[in-house]
Amino acid sequence: MLQNRIKEFRQKYGITQEEFSDKVGVSRQTIVALEKGKYNPSVILACRIAKIFNSTVEDIFIMEEEDHVRL
Amino acid sequence: MLDYKTKKYINKETFIFGALAFVGITVWILGTFFNILRDEMMGICLGFIPTGVFGVILTQRMKSNPEKADKMVRIKTEERMQLIRYKAGNFTFWSIFLYIFVFAILSRYIAIGLPIFLSITLVVMVVVHIISSIIYHKIS
Asked: For the whole model, what pTM was predicted?
């Protein structure tokens, strides 16, 4: 599973899970699952989250070493 | 003002529930006035008419609170829910496949008729789907 810093960013911006879910357009349960690292979001959702935090997808979602493709 | 997605969802649900009610009424007419499989038709229409009518009423009531309706539709159609529904559906399919396979092998030892077997299968299908949906909600 992809690690992420959603909770950290959300707390930094001072928004609740409910408010954040409204902004992103998903349910609060999805935010909970995302923060716990139980669910990998789609590209669109990841981009939306990054945009809300004025950040990049790479800043928010951290890939494990084994997830990287060796080129 | 309702969102486009919400409007589409309400129209789709109204059509489905309306179709259920229509089938129920048709079946009732066939059973009552034309005497075709009267008892069976009564059973079918008792299930279809209330489901269809209440479904249409509840769906139409969504229009009175657009904000709540938008949120409801958003939750129902979001990507995680779709994934859960897909996984639960897949799990239910293979579970029922296995169940029928086992039943087919053991059929000579189990003395029940096809109508009862099909009725039990319908119930098992719903139960398996509900349980798998709950499990996938918890783990994903």
From this structure: 0.75
3-state secondary structure of B109: coil
**pLDDT value at position A71?**
59
ipTM for this model: 0.79
Q: Parallel, antiparallel, or unpaired: how do β-strands A61-62 and A3-4 relate?
A: antiparallel
Angle between helices B66-77 and B79-106 in degrees, nearest 10: 50
Rounded Cα distance between A49 and B18, Å, is 39
- Bridge partners (DSSP) of residue A61 are A4
Same domain, B7 and B40: yes
Q: Is A2 on the interface with B (CB under 8 A)?
A: no
Please give the residue of chain B at the shortest CA–CA distance from A46. Answer: B79
Q: How far is A17 from chain B (nearest CA, A)?
A: 14
Residue B56 sits in the same domain as residue B84: no
Cβ–Cβ below 8 Å for A29 and B140 = no
